[in-house]
Amino acid sequence: MSTGYFSHRSKLYLTDLFNGLVTANHILHNKDVVDGYGHISVRNPDAPDDAFFMAHAIAPALVSSQADIVQYSIATGEPLEKSDETKSNFIERYIHSEIYKKFPGVNCVVHSHAPEVLPFSINHVPLKAPVHTSAFLGKLSFCFASFSAWQLAPIALPFYKDGLLNVIRGRTGTDTPVWDIGSTYSSGDPHDMLVRSKKLGGALAQCFAKPATSVNFIRTKLTETITGTHNGPSTTPDFPVVLMRGHGFTVAGPGIEETVYMAIYTVQAAKIQTSALLLSNAYFAGKIEGNVDSDNGGKIKNGTIKNPKEPHYLSGREVKDATEAIWNTAQRPWQLWKREVECLPLYVNACSSEGEEGG
């Protein structure tokens, strides 16, 4: 049996889930995805339609025990139990509640302000899939998949299906969406960039789905006609990552390990794409092509400036195949990252893991 968390268990104990949530906080900090700010949550598998868990407003590196974890209502975004008055709640918990509300197939959400990603939220340069480890940013949405040997029981959730990597849904475009909160403010809202209400959280959650365009409507109807199926509202996002203008980014995934993976490799993708764009500009920009007029002081005749070339991003087929290949090995980096934070004295995880098997 896998030693993973939600969705990679035959049995899932809440003590294990809390252990994994604390570890995830530590990994995200150790990998510079979060600092004093940022947060991760996980859906409550015993009440998947009603509740999720997230630490109270504390730096992720300092989350250390079950006492730091609060259960929130998906419907309202408010704590379900009376909490310690000395512990405050994250203002932006509505990011999490509204994504869980819109997408029943999402079980984990990460919100980050990583500086490597932020430039892509403000300068109209789209974040794409530059390498295979970030294929989830490409033409195909992230595989919300399950493995039959790892089904949740006895608390199996209805949105998991048997089969290996059995859900790969295409989406139009290759750019990671950017949500602009400025278009969503009401007149009385503070313009502080924070997702501090259900309305703002709902607007962000909507950005994880394909826009309701006439092209998408026609494509859906054609697919239904050809396949003979009639699908209702999607339970999983079309885009696993959404950038937030001048703020950060949010990741929605099917489990803790997958979502942490995507958060880490979104930052890596931003670093790689930035380096590629800078290198391309340095190599190509300013080069002038033309004929040198040796009789007129060496001036260039009919010269044209050579523009930088676009980096060679992953193709649609490469996105699909790379996503499948990487997702078969997603537990490997998780075990490494877990061991790294276990060896560092900054990180304390006092949660028991009575359901853990295999070390």
- CATH topological fold name: L-fuculose-1-phosphate Aldolase
Named at the architecture level, the CATH assignment is 3-Layer(aba) Sandwich
With strands numbered from the N-terminus, the spatial order across the biggest sheet is 3-2-1-4-7-6-5
Please provide the ordered H/E string of secondary-structure elements. Answer: HEEEHEEHHEEHEEHH
Helix content: 25-40%
What general form does the structure show?
elongated
Helix count equals 7
Distance between the termini: 11 Å
CATH homologous superfamily annotation: Class II aldolase/adducin N-terminal domain
Describe this structure as you would to a colleague.
It is a single chain. By secondary structure, the protein is of the alpha+beta class. It has one domain (14-342): L-fuculose-1-phosphate Aldolase, CATH 3.40.225. The protein is built from seven helices and nine strands. Strands 3-2-1-4-7-6-5 form a seven-stranded mixed beta sheet, sandwiched between helices. A two-stranded antiparallel sheet has the order 8-9. Helix 1 runs parallel beside helix 5 and helix 2 crosses helix 3 (198-206). The longest helix is centred in the C-terminal third of the chain and has 29 residues, at 256-284. It is elongated and about 85 Å long. Mean pLDDT is 81; it is low at 139-143 and 145-173.
